[in-house]
Amino acid sequence: MDHFQPELFDFLTELKENNDRDWFQANKERYKEQVQEPLLAFIAAFSEPLRTISPHFVADPRPVGGSMFRIYRDVRFARDKSPYKTHAAAQFRHRDGRNAHAPCYYLHLEPGRVFMGAGLWHPDGPALAKIRSAIVDHPDHWRRASRDKSLGGDSLARPPRGFDPEHPLVDDLKRKDFIASFDLDQADACSPGFLDRFAASCRSSAPLVCFLTEAVGLEF
């Protein structure tokens, strides 16, 4: 499948209005048919285009432990105890990455909000130090990799310890996340050819993902 159906977004809209276990259990088969199965089919179909971007990133269509995020929220430390996410998402991460903090490409499907993300979210301390050092050691390479990318995520209020506070790339050195995102369109997600458009967005972010992947010592 190279695109989604409007029913996926309709289900998520209803889930947002009825975010409780009784409603979800009564509509679980709808979730599987309208959200889970189409997303798993998209993940499987994206495997081939992803290999042309990098053979080291994985599109895993398993329903548990694969590229698709679970619909269930972790509410242990959250004020909001709503049990279910009101979006569907998939992460295509590096084969050597063991969690959501690995270099990756990301697809987010939510009523009124569809986007692709690429990069590294919340890397741990050692990985963050490696990325900052790579930026200092290869500033021109970093500028090319991040050119025309609007990077988002969290940043430090002050320059990180051990780095020149007057460095010309100090704003990038202060970053705690290295994520680029591209807004897509809900109607586009439901149109034939969406897989190709998503792949094109991922491909345009490949220089950024390559820089980050190699900075943390992995192959791109």
Structure description:
By secondary structure, this protein is α+β, with helices and mostly antiparallel strands. The protein has a single domain (6-215), classed as Protein of unknown function DUF1054 (BirA Bifunctional Protein, domain 2, 2-Layer Sandwich). It is built from 9 helices and 5 strands; from the N terminus they run αααβββααβαβααα. It has a 5-stranded antiparallel beta sheet. Helix 1 packs across helix 3 (28-53), helix 3 packs across helix 8 and helix 4 crosses helix 5. The longest helix is centred in the first third of the chain and has 26 residues, at 28-53.
Strand order of the largest sheet: 1-2-3-5-4
Mean pLDDT: 94
CATH T-level fold name = BirA Bifunctional Protein, domain 2
Instruction: Output the helix-strand order.
Output: HHHEEEHHEHEHHH
Proportion in β-strands: 5-15%
**What is the chains' assembly state?**
single chain
Number of helices: 9
Query: How much helicity do the residues have?
Result: 40-55%
DSSP strand count: 5
Largest sheet: 5 strands, antiparallel
**Computed CA radius of gyration, to the nearest angstrom:** 18 Å
Q: Which structural category fits the helices and strands?
A: alpha+beta
The general outline is globular
Main CATH class: Alpha Beta
**Second CATH tier, the architecture:** 2-Layer Sandwich
Tally of structural domains: 1
- The end-to-end span amounts to 27 Å
Low-confidence stretches: none
Q: Can you identify the CATH superfamily?
A: Protein of unknown function DUF1054
